[in-house]
């Protein structure tokens, strides 16, 4: 994209933007949507354990190339309850069936120097999230000095309340113009 870019991450995507935008001359701001926001040296597993997320309790292994459990996904029968309780059941079932497993390494790799140390940040707290508890979201948002918006919604807030997500992205874009 030409010019500056607002970098947005949801869930695990928060760790992605935290690392990928670090030192990028194109990144203008970060927007975390019910997302992990790790600090240097932290992993997603550290944060999930600290904030009481259910990830290890509701995941199922997916062998790849004969290896034992190198990837995980949310158990289909747990997905609506934990990830998308405010999404219609049929739509939650489609989301569960279409989820891409995540590498175990994504939960164990440590974060480098976080982009949020140098970029302005916004955080949308999903107040009914059962994947990353709202208390943890608030703590992460506080430590990165983010502009915080809270909205009732599950971890699937981008599906159940897309207007809330768009509003926060618009706030960030307006602020860094």
Automatic annotation (TrEMBL):
The keyword Manganese does not apply. It comes from the Bacteria. One of its GO terms (molecular function) is hydrolase activity. Residues 2-167 form the AB hydrolase-1 domain. Keywords: Hydrolase. The keyword Hydrolase applies. InterPro entries: AB_hydrolase_1, AB_hydrolase_fold, Sec-Metab_Biosynth_Hydrolase. Pfam families: Abhydrolase_6. PANTHER family: AB HYDROLASE-1 DOMAIN-CONTAINING PROTEIN-RELATED, ESTERASE_LIPASE_THIOESTERASE DOMAIN-CONTAINING PROTEIN. This is Alpha/beta hydrolase. It comes from Nocardia yunnanensis. The lineage of its organism: Bacteria, Bacillati, Actinomycetota, Actinomycetes, Mycobacteriales.
């Amino acid at each position: 994209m030409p010019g500056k870019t607002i970098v947005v991450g949801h869930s695990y995507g928060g760790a992605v933007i935290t690392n990928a935008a670090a030192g990028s001359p194109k990144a203008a701001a970060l927007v975390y949507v019910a997302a992990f926001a790790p600090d240097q040296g932290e992993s997603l597993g550290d944060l999930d354990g600290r904030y009481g997320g259910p990830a290890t309790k509701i995941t199922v292994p997916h062998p790849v190339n004969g290896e034992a459990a190198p990837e995980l996904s949310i158990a289909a029968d747990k997905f609506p309850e934990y990830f998308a309780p405010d999404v219609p059941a049929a739509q939650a079932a489609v989301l569960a069936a279409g989820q891409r497993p995540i590498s175990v390494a994504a939960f164990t790799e440590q974060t480098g120097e976080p982009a949020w140390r140098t970029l302005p940040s916004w955080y949308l707290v999903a107040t009914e999230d059962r994947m990353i508890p709202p208390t943890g979201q608030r703590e992460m948002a506080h430590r990165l000095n983010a502009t915080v918006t809270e909205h009732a919604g599950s971890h699937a807030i981008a599906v159940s309340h897309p207007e809330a997500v768009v509003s926060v992205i618009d706030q960030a874009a307006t602020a860094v113009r």
